[in-house]
Amino acid sequence: MLELLDKKLINNSLSRNWTTVVADHRKLPIDNASIDLIVSGWSISYLTNTGNIDWKENLELIVSELMRVLKPAGTIIILETLGTGTESPNPPKFLTEYYSLLESKYGFSHRWIRTDYQFANTTEAKENMEFFFGSDISRKIDENQWSTVPECAGIWWKHV
Fold it and tell me: Could you read off the pLDDT of 1-56 as tens digits, one per residue?
């Protein structure tokens, strides 16, 4: 994903003014106050879901690291799922406490948007969605004859 991002940015930019890094959210190899904009898409939840015994500690470390590397007047944007195969937000129960703390403890604002998956037909939808989301979504695709599979995403942001 990062290689693809670099290629797209190189093709659309006049000068290289970005850096992509593979790292653990809890210990970023980035200098203090060096980042204007932080965007994390569908990744923090792997460390902050209630199925992880240390999820609250992980969230504290992650937010602390994001704030450490963010420049004054910088912005953090976090994108996470609010439900695959749903037309309105229906987040997985194991993520609701994480989402709640982003707002109540860490001061993030929140909105949701639709980020539907579009396919040529239901067969293509089933083949691609079942691989990642399992047989339940495949069954929903059959029941609803979806070539466009509804998806809701949450956007949390904080401007410092």
Answer: 888 988 888 898 778 888 888 899 999 999 999 999 999 999 999 999 999 999 99
- Predicted TM-score (pTM) of the model is 0.90
In terms of Cβ atoms closer than 10 Å to its own Cβ (0-12, 13-18, 19+), residue 5 is exposed
Tokens describing residue 15? 């000068």
Q: Are 75 and 158 in contact (CB under 8 A)?
A: yes
Please give the torsion angle defined by the CA atoms of residues 157, 98, 94 and 135, in that order, rounded to the nearest 10 degrees: 20
SS3 157: strand
Cβ–Cβ under 8 Å, residues 67 and 160: yes
Residue with tokens 């809701």: 152
For residue 116, the SS3 value is coil
Residues 6+ apart with CB under 8 A from 102: 78, 108, 110, 156
